[in-house]
């Protein structure tokens, strides 16, 4: 089979390259022009993997720019602000977070005070894996430079976020999941007290929380963390939102395996990372698997969150997932609740859930990054039929609607912002990976 791109694939590749070139700022890539004008940590992880196929030096620069925002305790903030832009041009901007007032944070730039799905080690390793022979030495030196920063990031998660004590990292805000308004957060958010004098929730006609009220809850959670100077005591003892999310922890596990591999490549000991990986693997099964799928665990309520979302499939990234769990997840993915009834899988929420909404962000639409993660996981497990389905559906989405932020899962129409960087970057990675596998 040919290892070259077809004419149509070449056109797609070039269109994706134009998006990444246009969104490059000189040291990183904005998720989309206008709407998201700073750097987001998980976006940059995805984007770097596309850049690695296109402009390698930018891929490295992208990851390093994210780590410029790293706090001394190892936290990798989910947003690094571009100080050349007006301070009030974006909300939640630097004045909400006040990162520079916290000891041990970067002095020369502003960041958020939350983290995001820890995909950076996975991205760094993928950059290395797609380096050609002439780039290998430089690539190894880059990994050696990044390794201590990645170790600090993982240590922070293990020491400050393993609040359940069994190996998983808890998120303390929906934004840390990357799936901001997922229905998984409805229950823990509704348990949150909002001071009525400071926040004025608008009620929807049905009496439920409006998007505005959710927004107040997001901001309330940030001010609780900020007012405690992002301290671990408040987090552990008082913070009202603490959830062990399957996608966040699957990213953590995949990156821990990648860290072990990076350790080997740079002449360090992989054993501690492999021990960490074994612990995360065990805890995912013991704590989040209920026999049907993985669910988020609300640590404050002490209960699994009933709604099933695309995050439930995140542990497909676990290379040691036991075969029965793998089979059960694959069946659910292909069932009428997900891929089986959507023209363009995978919807972000169970189609049969009352929370499903085909138009709203993480409450139903399909996203390129989650499709890509599931493609990666199913490919690694040899589930080629599902991997091919995801590959085809993902390319069909962008061919039909362009590099949109997210898409209607029934008709593939585009929604949210245009020229969205990770949609372009991950399409490049998909095309390049397919070409490489045909060449092999
Ligand atoms: C949206 C997405 C989040 C992403 C951010 C920047 O908030 O929900 O996952 O990181 O945009 O693209």
UniProtKB/TrEMBL annotation:
The keyword Hydrolase applies. It comes from Thermomonospora cellulosilytica. Belongs to the glycosyl hydrolase 63 family. One of its GO terms (molecular function) is Glc3Man9GlcNAc2 oligosaccharide glucosidase activity. Residues 36-423 form the Mannosylglycerate hydrolase MGH1-like glycoside hydrolase domain. GO terms for biological process: oligosaccharide metabolic process; protein N-linked glycosylation. The keyword Transferase does not apply. Pfam families: MGH1-like_GH. This is Mannosylglycerate hydrolase MGH1-like glycoside hydrolase domain-containing protein. Coiled coil: none annotated. Keywords: Glycosidase, Hydrolase.
């Amino acid at each position: 089979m040919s290892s070259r791109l077809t004419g149509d694939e070449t056109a797609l590749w070039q269109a994706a390259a134009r998006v990444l070139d246009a969104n490059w700022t000189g040291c990183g890539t904005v998720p989309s022009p206008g709407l998201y004008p700073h750097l987001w940590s998980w976006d940059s992880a995805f984007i770097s993997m596309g850049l690695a196929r296109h402009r390698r030096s930018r891929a490295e620069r992208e990851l390093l720019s994210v780590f410029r925002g790293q706090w001394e305790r190892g936290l990798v903030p989910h947003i690094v602000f571009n100080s050349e832009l007006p301070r009030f041009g974006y909300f939640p901007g630097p004045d909400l977070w006040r990162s520079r007032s916290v000891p041990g944070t970067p002095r020369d730039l502003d960041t958020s005070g939350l983290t995001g799905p820890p995909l950076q080690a996975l991205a760094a390793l993928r950059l290395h894996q797609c380096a050609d022979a002439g780039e290998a030495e430089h690539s190894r030196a880059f990994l050696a430079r990044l390794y201590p920063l990645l170790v600090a990031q993982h240590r922070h998660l293990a020491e400050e976020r393993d609040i359940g004590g069994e190996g998983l990292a808890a998120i303390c805000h929906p934004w840390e999941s990357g799936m901001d308004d997922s229905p998984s957060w409805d229950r823990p958010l509704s348990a949150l007290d909002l001071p009525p004098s400071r926040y004025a929730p608008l009620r929807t006609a049905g009496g439920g929380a409006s998007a505005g009220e959710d927004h107040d809850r997001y901001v309330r959670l940030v001010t609780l963390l900020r007012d405690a100077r992002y301290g671990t005591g408040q987090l552990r003892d008082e913070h009202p939102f603490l959830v062990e999310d399957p996608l966040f922890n699957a990213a953590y596990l995949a990156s821990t395996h990648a860290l072990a591999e990076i350790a080997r490549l740079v002449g360090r000991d992989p054993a501690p990372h492999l021990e960490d990986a074994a612990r995360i693997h065990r805890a995912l099964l013991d704590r989040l698997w209920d026999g049907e799928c993985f669910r988020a665990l609300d640590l404050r309520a002490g209960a699994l969150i009933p709604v099933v979302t695309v995050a439930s499939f995140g542990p497909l990234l676990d290379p040691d997932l036991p075969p029965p769990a793998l089979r059960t997840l694959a069946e659910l993915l292909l069932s009428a609740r997900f891929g089986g009834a959507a023209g363009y899988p995978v919807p972000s929420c169970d189609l049969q859930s009352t929370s499903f909404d085909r138009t709203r962000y993480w409450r139903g639409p399909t996203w390129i990054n989650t499709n890509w993660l599931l493609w990666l996981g199913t490919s690694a497990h040899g589930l080629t039929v599902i991997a091919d389905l995801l590959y085809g559906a993902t390319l069909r989405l962008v061919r039909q609607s362009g590099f949109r932020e997210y898409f209607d899962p029934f008709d593939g129409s585009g929604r949210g912002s245009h020229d969205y960087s990770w949609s372009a970057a991950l399409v490049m990675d998909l095309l390049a990976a397919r070409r490489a596998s045909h060449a092999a």
